[in-house]
């Protein structure tokens, strides 16, 4: 019995730490992201080939980066869940999976918006967009499996297995989709073919990428706090906190 | 080397937001029988599944011959025979085929021995009839036939006597006594009245509605 | 009851147990069960044929379209039909308590899972491959493409079974397991589908296909070595949760 309460120590500890960290994620994150986006959208020079439509990369690229990084982070946490049975790792996966799905959706959406002026159509089976779509499927699977299993511990471990299987598959999927793409539409204009970007173009991009990552950190902390409160709802410290 | 075969200290298990049991200590020595008792829903089956290594959601420690069960897993499984609620019988296969498949974990059983075991549970006339044509009790007997051929020193039997008639239960009781005399250890749950000398029992109380807080 | 006449002293055994007889027993039991439940064998095959016949009806019976899309149609149909059959892979064993016994065998679960998936492929994947030449003819594929298609299916359908087994193990015992299983597994099937159909396309254009087949082979080796571990872990979780 006491052992059980002893183990609650770590979520409680994290709850406190997260609370103190969150402002440090939120404020610089917002600043960087806003600077990056405003700079990118309003002040960066237009692209010689795509004109102004390329500016959506200041949203598309950060979200696309984060969409993949988030899955890899979930896989790392999944490994921790399976090997060390750390409760926090599983809280992280559960808290972050929907965020990852939303970010992936944003990347897909901005990519397809970008497609309209570039290719003249809302959707094109471009290699990047297609692998992003499959990544979204993977996120859906993780969320669905987590919701389908009632028992918390079993759900955590099952989701961890699935995420690990998924992360092994991501490079294979990416490679196969690129290979498939060259098979079907050789050498059209690619979203990412930017041979050399001037600094006025890539600095705001880097700013918005870092900003989005920080905001992600903030959101992850917030959602993890909520999840911890829910899971530890019967523990004394949560009751005291709530009252 | 005076370790009990199986030892568990301060086992606790919580399922679906309620405590099933806490602070369960038990030790099963060679030659002893432990009967786990308690009302329905007290967690008898879960306890047995935890001891067999089938259920991972528990706190506490389980030792096999003095070694943590997670580390001694292969050795433990080699020496464990578990029969659960669901007997592990394929309905489309005959008793003989089922028995053969169940015994494949430690090979070397001849067909004659398998037929003898079926004889012991009075199923020999049905040896070649698919199990779904047999009654529930007969299907369970197929699983129980393994007991007559087992060389595993530890048995965990969850409601093994369900649907078995009186003569069958008596014959099994004699087998259990014989095993105990030979140094085998048995953990079981049953609703039957057992007449076995030297059986110990462990009572699980029901923790209905008890919240998990201080 | 001579089986219980004399009982030698029962002590814990130290020696390890042989592996192959146990695997052989698993294979034999699964194959026997499948052969006695012929309907389960037959249904995915009928499904395969029906899905294939939807395309000429739903899209176009023109020879040009069919010979262009035929390989893809057959691959997608094979994929869906494998998906449909995955439900049986562990469900019966789970409900009958056979799975518990498998988990408690002293032999490595990896090998037992490998054997079970192999047995599953023998009764679902192989019939699909045998059926493919006939359907290929109906879809106006030429002989070369049909041969290549069979070859890719021979390499690819085991991968489908192995990856699918992970999903089947994860969703074991859940309500609405069927649709959830598809949701988990389909994204993981995409590379197999791409390489499978890509190979047939290359063959149709008269290109060499050895490197393509090597890719499929690599996927098979990867699935063979990794997937049973994931499946074994998932089975432990699902049985523990039951």
Strand percent estimate of chain B: 15-25%
Rounded average pLDDT of chain C:
91
Secondary-structure-based class of chain B equals alpha/beta
Distance between the termini of chain C: 37 Å
Distance between the termini of chain B: 40 Å
Principal-axes shape call of chain C: elongated
Strand content of chain C: under 5%
> Main β-sheet of chain B: number of strands, strand sense, barrel status?
5 strands, parallel
How many β-strands of chain B, per DSSP? 9
Tell me the number of helical segments of chain B per DSSP (H or I, 4 or more residues long): 6
Give me the count of strands of chain C: 0
What is the helix/strand order of chain B?
EEEHEEHEHHHEHEE
Number of domains of chain C: 1
Radius of gyration of chain B: 18 Å
Could you characterize what this model shows?
The complex is a heterotrimer of chains A (243), B (214) and C (242). Helix content of chain A is 81%, strand content 0%. Chain A is mainly α and 243 residues long. Chain A folds into two domains: 77 residues; 133 residues. The two termini of chain A are 24 Å apart. The N terminus of chain A is likely disordered. Chain B has 214 residues and is of the alpha/beta class. Helix content of chain C is 81%, strand content 0%. The mean pLDDT of chain C is 91. Chain C is mainly α and 242 residues long. Chain C has one domain. Chains in contact: A-B, A-C, B-C. Chains A and B meet through α1 of A and β1 of B.
Annotation keywords:
heterotrimer; A: 243 residues; 2 domains; C: mainly alpha; 9 helices
In short:
By secondary structure, chain A is an all-alpha fold. Helices cover 81% and strands 0% of the residues of chain A.
Detail the topology: elements first, then pairings.
The complex is a heterotrimer of chains A (243), B (214) and C (242).
Chain A: H1 2-7, H2 9-43, H3 57-84, H4 87-119, H5 127-148, H6 152-184, H7 199-231, H8 236-242
Helix pairs in contact in A: 2-7, 3-4, 3-6, 3-7, 4-5, 4-6, 4-7, 5-6
Chain B: E1 6-15, E2 18-28, E3 33-37, H1 44-52, E4 59-64, E5 67-68, H2 73-78, E6 80-83, H3 95-103, H4 111-120, H5 136-149, E7 154-158, H6 166-181, E8 185-189, E9 199-203
Chain C: H1 20-36, H2 38-58, H3 63-85, H4 87-96, H5 98-103, H6 109-138, H7 143-170, H8 177-204, H9 210-241
Helix pairs in contact in C: 1-6, 2-3, 2-6, 3-6, 3-7, 3-8, 6-7, 6-9, 7-8, 7-9, 8-9
């Amino acid at each position: 019995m006491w052992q059980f309460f002893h183990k609650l120590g770590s979520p409680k500890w994290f709850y406190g730490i997260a609370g103190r960290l969150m402002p440090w994620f939120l404020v610089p994150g917002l600043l960087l992201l806003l600077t990056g986006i405003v700079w990118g959208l309003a002040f960066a020079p237009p692209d010689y080939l795509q004109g102004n439509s390329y500016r959506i990369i200041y949203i598309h690229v950060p979200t696309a980066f984060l969409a993949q990084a988030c899955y890899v982070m979930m896989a790392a946490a999944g490994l921790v869940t399976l090997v060390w049975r750390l409760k926090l790792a599983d809280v992280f996966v559960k808290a972050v999976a929907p965020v990852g799905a939303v970010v992936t959706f944003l990347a897909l959406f901005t990519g397809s918006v970008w497609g309209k002026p570039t290719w003249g159509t809302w959707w094109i089976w471009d290699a990047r967009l297609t692998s992003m779509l499959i990544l979204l499927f993977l996120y859906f699977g993780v969320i669905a499996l987590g919701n389908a299993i009632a028992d918390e511990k079993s759900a955590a471990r099952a989701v961890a297995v699935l995420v690990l299987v998924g992360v092994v598959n991501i490079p294979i999927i990416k490679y196969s989709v690129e290979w498939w793409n060259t098979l079907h539409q050789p050498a059209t204009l690619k979203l990412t073919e930017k041979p050399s970007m001037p600094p006025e173009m890539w600095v705001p991009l880097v700013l918005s990428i870092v900003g989005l990552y920080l905001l992600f950190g903030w959101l992850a902390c917030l959602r993890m706090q909520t999840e911890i409160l829910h899971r530890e709802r019967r523990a004394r410290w949560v009751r005291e906190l709530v009252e | 080397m005076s370790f009990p075969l199986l030892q568990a200290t301060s086992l606790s298990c919580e399922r679906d937001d309620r405590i099933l049991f806490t602070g369960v200590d038990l030790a099963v020595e060679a030659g002893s029988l432990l009967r786990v008792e308690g009302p329905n829903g007290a967690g008898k089956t879960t306890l047995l599944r935890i001891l067999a290594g089938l259920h991972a959601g528990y706190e506490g420690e389980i030792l096999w011959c003095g070694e943590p069960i997670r580390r001694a897993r292969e050795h433990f499984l080699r020496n464990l025979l578990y029969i659960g609620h669901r007997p592990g019988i394929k309905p489309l296969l005959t008793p003989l085929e089922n028995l053969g498949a169940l015994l494949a974990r430690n090979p070397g059983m001849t067909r004659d021995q398998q037929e003898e075991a079926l004889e012991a549970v009075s199923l020999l006339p049905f040896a070649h009839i698919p199990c779904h044509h047999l009654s529930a009790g007969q299907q369970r007997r197929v699983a129980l036939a393994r007991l007559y051929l087992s060389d595993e020193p530890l048995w965990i039997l969850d409601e093994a006597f369900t649907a078995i008639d009186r003569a069958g239960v008596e014959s099994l009781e004699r087998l259990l006594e014989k095993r105990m005399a030979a140094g085998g250890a048995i953990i079981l749950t049953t609703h039957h009245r057992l007449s076995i000398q030297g059986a110990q029992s462990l009572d699980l109380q029901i923790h209905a509605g008890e919240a998990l807080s201080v | 009851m001579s089986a219980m006449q004399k009982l030698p002293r029962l002590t814990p055994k130290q020696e390890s147990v042989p592996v192959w007889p146990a695997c052989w027993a698993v294979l034999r039991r699964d194959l026997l069960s499948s052969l006695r439940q012929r309907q389960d064998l037959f249904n995915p095959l009928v499904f395969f044929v029906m899905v294939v016949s939807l395309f000429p009806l739903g899209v176009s019976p023109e020879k040009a379209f069919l010979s262009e899309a035929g390989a893809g149609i057959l691959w997608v149909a094979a994929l869906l039909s494998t998906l449909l059959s995955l439900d049986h892979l562990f469900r019966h064993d789970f409900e009958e308590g056979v799975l518990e016994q498998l988990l408690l065998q002293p032999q490595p679960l990896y090998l037992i899972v490998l054997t079970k998936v192999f047995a599953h492929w023998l009764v679902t994947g192989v019939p699909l491959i045998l059926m493919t030449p006939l359907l290929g003819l109906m879809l106006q594929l030429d002989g070369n493409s049909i041969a290549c298609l069979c070859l890719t299916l021979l390499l690819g359908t085991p991968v489908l079974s192995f990856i699918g087994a992970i999903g089947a193990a994860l969703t074991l015992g859940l309500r609405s397991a069927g649709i959830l299983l598809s949701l988990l597994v389909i994204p993981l099937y995409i590379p197999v589908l791409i390489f499978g159909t890509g190979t047939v396309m290359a063959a149709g254009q008269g290109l060499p296909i050895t490197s393509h087949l090597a890719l499929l082979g690599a996927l098979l080796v990867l699935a063979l070595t990794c997937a049973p571990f994931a499946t074994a872990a998932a089975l432990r979780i699902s049985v523990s949760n039951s």
